[in-house]
């Protein structure tokens, strides 16, 4: 396994390449305000990050990644267009004892450019592909914009679509919701009892008040539960089309043909499919063999939740290794952190320690 010195040396090499591509070097504090990350991801982030308390700054997290602080820095007054690169350690809890480190180096490259987002996607991917080419990795791509567009196009309650979108990065929970909204799974027993009580006229006013929700918030939630219970399930045809999309794998060119056909029955995905077609043209223009490049429609659904478009990973043959590189588009994140301002943005990170190991043929 690579020593820190080996990882740092590989990081320096990658940083030089990113600077050669026009990126400015930026740094981010190791301690990051927990409030920002909790607002973005909810309490789930606690399971993956190291949390501490500062007597002055309050709750803080050891830096789980660089993208959020880099976006904050740019939205606070960065010039446009902009390209940034960075290196340093990140900290992630590991669920089980394994060879995966909880502290490791990342090197990253981010592009903020509103002129041609498709070209920026191709730029980042092609740059990573060229730097990692000697390692003979498998590249996998996806597009979360197609998935979210498909969910938004469902003929069902807005509340159901919102729930599915909220859990699109949690495949198991997403499938449970889709089964329930599609009428293929029973309503949970606790909810069934609550609905029965509401149907009998019980206003639940005798129940003790627990938690911080107001009476109005509770009433709104109960009304939403009743509306959901009284609404027809999502049709079997729509569920089947969505599942077909979620499970699709193939080459990029085959995927484009499949998705173009699927768009005839799911017209809301057509704009995202058109962007995919333009992206493949841009990738091909940069020498990427899109006829053999892998596409997985659900790729990126278990990563950090700010990706909302094109996503990619570079994988070693050893399935126990994490991706050597990953990235994607995160336009919505710039809107959230820009407090109304936004700019199309795409980027990615590489793990130089694993790159160094593979170059030396060392066990990881």
- Note the beta-strand portion: 15-25%
- In total, how many beta strands? 12
Tell me about the biggest sheet?
9 strands, mixed
Distance between the termini: 5 Å
Order of helices and strands: HEEHEEHEEHEHHHHHHEHHEEEHEH
Compact description:
The protein is α+β, with helices and mostly antiparallel strands.
Using brief descriptors, characterize the structure shown.
three-stranded antiparallel β-sheet, 17% strand, nine-stranded mixed β-sheet, alpha+beta, 364 residues, 14 helices, 12 strands
Description:
The protein has 364 residues and is α+β, with helices and mostly antiparallel strands. The protein has a domain at 187-232. The protein has 14 helices and 12 strands. The chain has helices spanning 4-20, 34-41, 67-75, 117-132, 144-152, 158-166, 171-181, 189-199, 215-230, 236-246, 252-262, 270-285, 331-337, 352-360; strands at 24-25, 31-33, 51-54, 58-62, 82-91, 103-112, 138-143, 249-251, 294-296, 310-315, 325-329, 345-350. The strands form 2 sheets. It has a 9-stranded mixed sheet with strand order 1-5-6-12-11-10-7-9-8, with helices on both faces. A 3-stranded antiparallel sheet has the order 2-4-3. Helix 1 packs across helix 14, helix 6 runs antiparallel to helix 7 and helix 11 (252-262) runs antiparallel to helix 12 (270-285). Keywords: Glycosyltransferase, Transferase. This is ATP phosphoribosyltransferase regulatory subunit. L-histidine binds at residues 65-67, 92, 106, 110, 301, 306-307.
């Amino acid at each position: 396994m690579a020593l820190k010195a080996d990882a740092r040396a590989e990081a320096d090499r990658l940083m030089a390449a990113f600077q050669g591509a026009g990126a400015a070097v930026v740094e981010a504090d190791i301690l990051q305000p927990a409030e920002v990350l909790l607002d973005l991801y909810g309490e789930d982030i606690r399971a993956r990050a190291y949390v501490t308390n500062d007597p002055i700054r309050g709750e803080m997290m050891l830096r789980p990644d660089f993208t959020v602080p880099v976006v904050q820095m740019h939205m606070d007054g960065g010039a446009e267009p902009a390209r940034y690169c960075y290196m340093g350690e990140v900290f992630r809890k590991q669920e089980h004892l394994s060879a995966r480190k909880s502290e490791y180096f990342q090197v990253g490259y981010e592009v903020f450019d509103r002129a041609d987002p498709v070209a920026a996607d191709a730029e980042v991917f092609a740059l990573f592909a060229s730097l990692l080419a000697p390692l003979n990795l498998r590249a996998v791509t996806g597009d979360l914009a197609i998935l979210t567009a498909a969910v938004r196009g469902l003929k069902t309650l807005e509340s159901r679509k919102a729930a599915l979108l909220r859990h699109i990065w949690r495949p198991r929970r997403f499938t449970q919701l889709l089964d329930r909204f599609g009428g293929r799974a029973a309503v949970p027993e606790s909810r069934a009892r609550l609905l029965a009580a509401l149907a009998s006229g019980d206003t639940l006013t005798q129940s003790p008040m627990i938690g911080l929700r107001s009476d109005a918030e509770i009433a709104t939630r109960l009304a939403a539960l009743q509306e959901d219970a009284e609404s027809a399930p999502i049709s079997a045809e729509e569920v089947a089309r969505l599942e077909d999309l979620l499970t699709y794998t193939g080459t990029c060119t085959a995927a484009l043909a499949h998705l173009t056909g699927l768009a005839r029955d799911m017209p809301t995905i057509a704009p995202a499919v058109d962007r995919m077609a333009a992206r493949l043209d841009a990738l091909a223009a940069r020498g990427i063999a899109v006829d053999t490049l892998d596409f997985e429609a659900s790729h990126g659904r278990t990563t950090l939740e700010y990706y909302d478009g094109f996503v990619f990973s570079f994988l070693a043959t050893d399935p126990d290794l994490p991706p050597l590189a990953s990235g994607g588009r995160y336009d919505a994140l710039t809107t959230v952190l820009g407090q109304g301002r936004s700019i199309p943005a795409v980027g990615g990170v590489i793990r130089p320690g694993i790159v160094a190991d593979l170059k030396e043929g060392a066990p990881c």
